[in-house]
């Protein structure tokens, strides 16, 4: 395509400190003012960001060998069960893991005060973590028990590896029943007393590259305050568009996801937060920012789409979701959702986000600064992810 | 005699009963409503400053009517270091004390409006809302 820029060209500019980098918010105003063609010529990289509870997250840890050696089978960090069925001292801590003695939802709605997400945060915050391990003992790994404290610096490796993060668009939840329900989208009051939505709308990474033209395996990203990479598509990756009406009008991107990874040791505790979702469980709130190279006008156009043209389906989490009824009650734009209320069947329903827009913006701005000062170059994907046209 | 500060919490079925006027007419109490969060068909909260000889009898009457009465000794504080400004508490808070400022999307906390209902303390995923005594 004429006027197409290459990753090499943009990276050269970044190294020379000459790249023009703007946040997705800034791009929107530029395109409004100057149009897509001129903005594409002027801008090299657009930065995005999101800071939200991310459903499927965790970390691989290599705990290191003891003397005598041990093949750890059952492992707990601060009483939170960790998966040890990988190798002698390799383990995976999942963000949703909770201590076996947690009251769970027996004390409804359960508080889930401490779980895997909190352990990951405490590791990154360089707190001492209580480790307990059991083994059956082998000829090569005779030790059977271990109780000690570790810190992130004591262990060999720690890789944050999140199988599904960074949802493109997500459901906005309401409750049509007459009882309060406690869901992963928060506490939902009866009779549509509130509506909870997620993602940062016009700042959200995957909403800005709906055809997956730039985001792929090896894309370098802001992850948990450090540098990370896109590993693969996330689980349940379902790129496409929300469709409405009898002529299936496209209403913005739908359900793409990412699997991401990075060295936990260089991440920051303020961008990886242990999260307690009332009545639901423990998870991890992850800060992610993705740079989008402005290779051509099409990429620039999609990166400049605004809240008013990005949508989320409103779904009943009172009983519909549980039964697999995913026909939206309404498709609401992010402009409506962010206004503080949406109207459903003549009823005004107060809305609230679960994603921090102010923090999403901070991430987009940090990433912009990293690129502008030459410390962060673009990772050209070795393979693009399945998009709406090539699933 | 000193006045006492109390919090009244009642269910939606109570919201349209004139219990406060009975406190004045039948129990001769002087009442100053400090904060109110009442609307028809909804759970409500009132924070009152009450003065009068028949204070105990008045409270007994309220309890008989199904109103939950607590002394106002606690205060809700937002821990600014923990709050990430997500907004997850804002459609739960019944009094509007927690709200989103637009277009910045920053979450604000106006403690003057807070009726100490504890809802935010329970729902905040980061434990940023704290009860202080
Ligand atoms: S839910 Fe918690 S973190 Fe989110 S805005 Fe409210 S107080 Fe802050
Ligand atoms: S306790 Fe929390 S939810 Fe209740 S009124 Fe005060 S700020 Fe709002």
Average pLDDT, all residues of chain A: 95
Helices and strands of chain A: which structural class?
A: alpha+beta
Q: Which small-molecule ligands are present, each listed once?
A: iron/sulfur cluster
Radius of gyration of chain A: 22 Å
Q: What is the share of helical residues of chain A?
A: 10-25%
Oligomer: heterodimer
How many helices of chain A? The count is: 6
The structural class of chain B is alpha+beta
What is the global morphology of chain B? Answer: elongated
Low-confidence stretches of chain A: none
Your description of this structure?
The complex is a heterodimer of chains A (391) and B (133). In chain A, helix 2 runs antiparallel to helix 4 (297-303). In chain A, the strands form 8 sheets. In chain A, strands 3, 4, 7, 10, 16, 17, 20, 21 and 22 form a 9-stranded antiparallel sheet that branches. Chain A has a 4-stranded antiparallel sheet with strand order 6-5-8-9. A 3-stranded mixed sheet of chain A has the order 1-2-23, with helices on both faces. With 391 residues, chain A is of the alpha+beta class. In chain A, strand 1, helix 2 (24-42) and strand 2 (45-47) form a beta-alpha-beta unit. Chain A has helices at residues 7-15, 24-42, 116-124, 297-303, 334-339, 357-372, and strands spanning 21-23, 45-47, 50-54, 58-62, 74-77, 80-83, 90-94, 129-134, 145-150, 157-165, 172-174, 181-183, 186-188, 195-197, 216-217, 220-223, 226-233, 238-244, 249-255, 258-263, 272-277, 281-289, 291-293, 311-316, 330-333, 341-344, 347-353, 383-384. With 133 residues, chain B is of the alpha+beta class. Chain B has helices spanning 19-27, 55-64, 119-123, and strands at 4-10, 30-37, 44-51, 68-71, 75-78, 98-101, 106-109, 129-132. A 4-stranded antiparallel sheet of chain B has the order 2-3-1-4, covered by helices on one side. In chain B, a hairpin with a 6-residue loop joins strand 2 and strand 3 (44-51). The A-B interface holds A 51-53, 109, 111, 113, 186-187, 189, 193-196, 273, 275-278, 285, 338-340, 350-359 and B 84-92, 100, 102, 104-106, 122-123, 125-127.
């Amino acid at each position: 395509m004429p006027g197409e820029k290459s990753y090499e060209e943009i990276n050269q500019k970044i190294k020379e400190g000459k790249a023009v980098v703007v946040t997705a918010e800034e791009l929107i105003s530029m395109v409004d003012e100057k149009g897509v063609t001129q903005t594409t010529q002027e801008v090299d990289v657009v930065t995005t960001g999101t800071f939200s509870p991310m459903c499927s997250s965790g970390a691989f840890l290599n705990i290191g060998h003891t003397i005598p050696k041990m093949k750890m089978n059952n492992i707990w960090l601060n009483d939170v069960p960790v998966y040890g069925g990988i190798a002698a001292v390799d383990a995976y801590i999942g963000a949703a893991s909770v201590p076996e003695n947690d009251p769970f939802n027996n004390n409804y709605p359960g508080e889930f005060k401490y779980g895997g997400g909190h352990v990951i945060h405490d590791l990154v915050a360089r707190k001492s973590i209580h480790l307990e391990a059991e083994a059956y003992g082998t000829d090569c790994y005779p030790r059977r028990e271990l109780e000690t404290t570790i810190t992130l610096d004591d262990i060999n490796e720690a890789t944050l590896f999140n199988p599904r993060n960074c949802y493109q668009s997500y459901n906005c939840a309401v409750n049509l029943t007459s009882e309060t329900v406690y869901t992963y989208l928060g506490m939902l009051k009866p009779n549509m007393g509130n509506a909870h939505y997620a993602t940062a709308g016009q700042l959200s990474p995957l909403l800005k590259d709906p055809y997956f033209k730039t985001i792929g395996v090896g894309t370098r990203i802001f992850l948990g305050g450090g540098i990370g990479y896109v590993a693969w598509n996330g689980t349940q990756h379902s790129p496409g568009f929300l469709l409405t009406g009898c002529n299936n009008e496209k209403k913005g991107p739908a359900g793409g996801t990412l699997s991401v990874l990075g060295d936990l040791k260089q991440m920051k505790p303020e961008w990886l937060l242990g999260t307690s979702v009332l009545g639901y469980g423990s998870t991890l709130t992850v800060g992610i920012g993705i740079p989008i190279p402005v290779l051509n006008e099409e990429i620039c156009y999609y990166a400049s789409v605004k809240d008013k043209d990005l949508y989320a389906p409103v779904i009943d989490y009172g009983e519909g979701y549980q039964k697999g009824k995913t026909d939206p009650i309404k498709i609401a734009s992010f402009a409506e959702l962010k206004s503080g209320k949406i109207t459903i069947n003549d009823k005004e329903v107060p809305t609230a986000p679960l994603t921090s827009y102010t923090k999403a913006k901070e991430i987009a701005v940090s990433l912009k600064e990293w690129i502008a000062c030459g410390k962060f170059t673009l990772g050209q994907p070795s393979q693009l992810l399945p998009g709406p046209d090539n699933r | 005699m000193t006045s006492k500060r109390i919090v009244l919490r009642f269910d939606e079925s109570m919201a349209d009963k004139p219990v406060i006027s009975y406190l004045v007419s039948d129990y001769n109490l002087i009442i100053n409503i400090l904060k109110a969060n009442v609307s028809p068909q909804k759970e409500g909260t009132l924070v009152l400053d009450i003065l009068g000889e028949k204070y105990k009898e008045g409270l007994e009457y309220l309890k008989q009517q199904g109103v939950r009465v607590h002394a106002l000794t606690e205060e809700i504080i937002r821990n600014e270091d923990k709050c990430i400004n997500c907004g997850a508490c804002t459609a739960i808070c019944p009094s509007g004390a927690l709200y989103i400022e637009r277009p910045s999307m920053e979450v604000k906390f106006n403690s003057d409006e807070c009726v100490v209902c504890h809802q935010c303390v329970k729902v905040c995923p980061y434990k940023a809302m704290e009860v202080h005594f």
